[in-house]
Design goal:
The chain is α+β, with helices and mostly antiparallel strands. α1 runs antiparallel to α2. The termini are far apart. Helix content is about 55%, strand content about 20%. It has 2 helices and 2 strands. β1 and β2 form a beta hairpin. It has a two-stranded antiparallel ribbon. The chain has one domain.
């Protein structure tokens, strides 16, 4: 089984280790919550709930 996966954004892509990909969303959410933008903070709350449901980045989310 592969320990890597690809991440694509528009027409750009890169390979990442699965473990790093599981932790990255948690860091993204933490930074989004620190920004003084109500819309972004609300999205971050939604993302955190989604990650908890998917059991992604379990050690970081929450």
């Amino acid at each position: 089984m592969s320990r890597t996966t690809t991440v694509s954004v528009e027409d750009q892509g890169f390979w990442v280790l699965d473990d790093a990909l599981a932790v990255w969303p948690g860091y993204l959410i933490d930074q989004a919550e620190r920004v003084a933008d109500p819309w972004l903070a609300e999205r971050a709350e939604d993302w955190r709930g989604t990650l908890e449901c998917l059991d992604v980045g379990k050690s970081f989310v929450g």
